[in-house]
């Protein structure tokens, strides 16, 4: 793959190096158990895509400042809180190869840690007087919760339309990257119009990101670490499957939905669903849709100043759609 994350990070290397200390400071507590858990959270950090979006979105327009670091910390705090709570909801014991908080310290502690992180995020913004950043990010958390609940509600029937699917992922996944880009631009004093344009750019990238994740489920992009058909086993309706069902006969549709609902732990049945999606052009369709959103994101980017940060954001969009995991 052509684009490396280290190349993308080049214009914001200084910020990314300083960010970890900032983030750790924002989680400090006088309770030893909490400190132990937050230390563990910092240690198991992933690619740090969200702070990258915040810093690059600020640097497109100006130099980053204290407000940009507050934005990045706020997003990571609230995002980490939602992940800790998600792991409890999903009864998930691993995240990025590490044990989840609930696996090591049980659900009760995990829920309380999530609450603590949310309150730290709120206090960080209030203490620094960053009410606009707080408004953007809080709205994002609200949408994420709505998207998650909408998905749970729709999973019962399994017969969801493409329109509902996009509504779910716009809220559940895309809104967070959208708020990274919006807070980045807002932190360097951009107008509400520019902040909204940046938010829309992030939303398009976030939708690309989720469709790419959907594709990994079918083994078409050799994702490392995610077994095939995991979404099917979890009864998640993703774009390749939704498209395949739209074009299926009544009998086929009934059969596939019944498999996802009742035989989702049978490996051979899950493989039948995967083969059905592959044969029904579901993969090709999802890739085309992903590229449409990618092109939309890149055309928004063309309206911004041309500099190193813009170039890195462009690379980050392409990286999102070409990543292998």
Summarize the structure in words.
With 325 residues, the chain is mostly helical. It has one domain: Farnesyl Diphosphate Synthase, CATH 1.10.600.10. The protein has 15 helices and two strands. A two-stranded antiparallel ribbon has the order 1-2. Strand 1 (94-95) and strand 2 (98-99) form a beta hairpin. Helix 5 runs antiparallel to helix 8 (162-187) and helix 11 crosses helix 13. The termini are close together.
Class inferred from helices and paired strands: mainly alpha
Instruction: Give the spatial strand order of the biggest sheet.
Output: 1-2
What is the share of helical residues? Answer: over 70%
Terminal CA distance: 12 Å
What is the H-and-E element order?
A: HHHHHEEHHHHHHHHHH
What's the count of strands? 2
CATH architecture descriptor name = Orthogonal Bundle
CATH fold title: Farnesyl Diphosphate Synthase
Spans where pLDDT lies below 50 across 5 or more residues: 221-226
Q: Write down the overall geometry.
A: globular
Query: C-alpha Rg, in Å?
Result: 20 Å
Number of domains as seen in the coordinates: 1
Amount of beta strand: under 5%
How many helical elements? 15
Q: Largest sheet, if any?
A: 2 strands, antiparallel
CATH superfamily: Farnesyl Diphosphate Synthase
Arithmetic mean pLDDT = 84
CATH class: Mainly Alpha
